[in-house]
Each structure stands twice: as C-alpha cells, then as structure tokens.
Amino acid sequence: MNLESNDMSSDDFDRCKQIFLNNLAVTDEQRARIERDTVGQKNNDLWKQYKSQRLTASYFGRVCKLRSVDSRPKCVENILYDSFLGDRNTRYGINNEENARQQVGKTLGKQIHLSGLFIHKTLHYLGASPDGLVDEVDGDSILEITCPSSIQEYTPREAFENGKLKFMTENNEGQLVLKEEDKRYYQVQGELNISEKTYCYFVVWTPKGNIFVSRSKRRQLKLRKESIDDKPKFDKQNNILKCIK
User: Fold this and answer.
1) Record's PANTHER family (predicted)?
2) Does position 228 have pLDDT exceeding 50, yes or no?
C-alpha cells in the first residue's frame, strides 16, 4: 500500500477517521478487562487483535525522533505493515525473558506478574505492553526487560565499560541509567503514562548474572496529533502521534 498517494477527500478522511476512533472507544471497566484478557501477549490472539488497532509505546521513540527529512508516510507504512518476523537477536531476547523476569523477582524480593495490553484512558488508539507488573504495596510499578545477545559474554557493567551498552550512561553517582534520548526511554515513559503507573524497573539481563536494574519515574507526557493543516509535507493518511515532553 502506498501511503504517499492522496486520493481521499478531506471530508471522507475525517468521516472515516472518526468512525475508526469511535470503534476503538472503551470504558475504564473494559480497559481493565482487556489488560487481564491479553496476558500472554504474543501467544494471545486477543492481544494481537487489540494491539494491531493501536500505536503502542514500543514505537514512540521511532515516531518522536523523526527528523524533518524523514518520510512520515513511510514511517506510518512501516508501523502498520511491519513485515519483520524476528531474527536470532529477537529470538534470544524472547527465549531469555522469563529467566530474566524470575531473576528480577529474586533480586528485588518481589513477585512479578505477567502483563497484558494497557489502553490509554482517553486516547484509546494508544497502547502499551510492559514485560511485567511488580507486586508492590502500592501496585504502582511496571517492568521492562532487555536481553541483548551481543553482551551475553559480559555482565551489564562489563558490557558498559567495553562500550557495548550504547543506550546506557553513568550518572553523577556512578550508577548506570537509561539515556533519555534513547528510543527505550521513550518506550518506558509511554508505558508508564498509558498504564498510569509511577515507576518502571528497566532491566538489562545477561547469562553472566549480576543483572542491572534501573528504576525510572514517570514523567508527564503531553500527547497530541501533529496538525496536517497547510503542511504539504504531511499526507492525510499521515496522522502521526507526536510525544512532547
């Protein structure tokens, strides 16, 4: 499908857009039920169904970091019709995610529950699927795990010191933290805002042990749609979400 084409009138586009958005509308009760009914994520057909209709937090970094020279329609097309089926790196991450989740629970001394798909309270076309929910007194934390195959021979600290964790940096206290300009940070903040949780435990796991856990606090995101009025570089089909800190 070519999203560069512009063969729909403005009135038809607005009408179809409103119908689409109306069909996505859910109540708070439905949002809570959908999150529970979609636990299992990739192995759950309901999760695939609800996710396919929404822009999820995993894409926030890609969208928010678009440059002026980048094609908006091409970005939309890549998101809507993503043909990537995974490779050895993604399979490695998937195969080790449960090991990491269990180790996080032991390290934190907390129980980790599986998560389904969260839908934004008012912007029902936005969704997020954290890697877990941390069982805390206030029930207010989520979990995001990364298992990079490229650092499996290192501990996370060794990998950082050898320049292999480009998405991490060191703060003034010498602690490793997620870079705020990295796409993973946008994903974490998107997940926090959509799930309405306060904290996210971001975990880097390797088989060498000594997992790295960073706790990020939610920052309020202002979410709006980029206006396409009088902007020829945008197409009617290019109704891209912009995330503004």
Assistant:
1) EXONUCLEASE, PHAGE-TYPE/RECB, C-TERMINAL DOMAIN-CONTAINING PROTEIN, YQAJ VIRAL RECOMBINASE DOMAIN-CONTAINING PROTEIN
2) no
Q: What is the mean pLDDT of residues 141-149?
A: 95
Residue 225 predicted with pLDDT over 60: no
CB atoms within 10 A of CB 41: 16
Q: Please give the full DSSP string across 55-111, using - where no structure is assigned.
A: EEGGGHHHHHT--TTS-HHHHHHHHHT------HHHHHHHHHHHHHHHHHHHHHTS-
Output the CA angle 224-225-230, nearest 5 degrees: 130
pTM of this structure: 0.84
Rounded to whole angstroms, how far apart are CA atoms 220 and 154?
35
Q: What is the pLDDT of residues 64-112, one digit of tens each?
A: 889 989 998 888 888 888 777 778 899 999 999 999 999 999 999 999 9
